[in-house]
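Re: the pair you flagged

First of the two:
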Amino acid sequence: MIDEDFARIRAQRNNIHRYRRLLKTQLSELERQFIERRLSEESSALEALTSKTFPIAFAMPPRRPAPANVGAAP
């Protein structure tokens, strides 16, 4: 199951890179709209698959500024 998910993630990433490369070329407006829609769909599918495959996300606690007297001479 994990191997299949990794293969799908890899395929979707490759598709996203391909669509981004295509968007840098000269396209008709219809072609551009199609590729942008496919890029959006692939990005959403990739996000859903990665969140399912890697469900644990670690959030870093917000950084607190150091107290003003740290490192000051007494």
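Second of the two:
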Amino acid sequence: MPILENLTCPIDGEYLQRQAGSLTCSRGHTFDLAKTGYVNLLPVQNKRSKDPGDSKDMVSSRQNFLNLEHYLPIIDAIMTGWPKAAWQPQMRILDAGCGEGYYLHHLGQAFEKAAIPVERVGLDISKWAVTAASKRDKTVSWIVGSNASLPVPDQRFDVILCLFGFPVFHEFQRTLVDSGYLLLVESGPQHLIELREILYDSIHPYKATYSEGVTGFELESEYSKQFTFSLMSQQQIQYLLSMTPHIHKASYQGKQQIKQLDKISVTADIKLRWYRKTNERSK
């Protein structure tokens, strides 16, 4: 069962206590647990739109693609590069921008196989993503919330993962223990290059993010994982396209060209960077 402990009220920052099917703070703010076990800690006043984050259709496409298991090598790359100093008894992990829970679920399986107990918390701003995640794995604490204001106290986690998400470094630094670890996983220069060459007339030069470093964190290691996979139907191709920003950015002509394909071999190029929290204050 999900723990849903050591969380704070998104309205006033008070600790939340479990009372039957709800989480309640001392000032009376109450957040009901959904039937599938997650809790929504994103109050209306903190939303920038009526339905923030990925849509139901986008989540469904990502789920259908990821269930093909083409991205399992990313799990192996994360586990292989996990810093030895990050291993802690009852290690507490946050997946900040967890999507529909694929990575956190498979990481949990890897830790279980290694007989390493961990507490896993997944947070995403999309209620559709968290709903799907809570159906995938009942042993994780799933939360609808924002990286911009994590509903947890200071030094809550030993490791924070931000996989293809939107990092908010000052919040990550606040909620990590001293010398805690942050993993950023992003697309590399050749990621999905075969699709992009069809979708666009020209490919923009690759620009590495955070090349000047990240205030409040020290880069510990950086490495890449490249592999290829095959999509064997137009439906599978659309699953992948629909879960990427290219579905919105590409031209009509490019997307029409993609629709003519019935199979394609695609390159995955993934960049992984492990950071350690420092005493320097992040902004």
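The chain has a mean pLDDT of 93.

-B.
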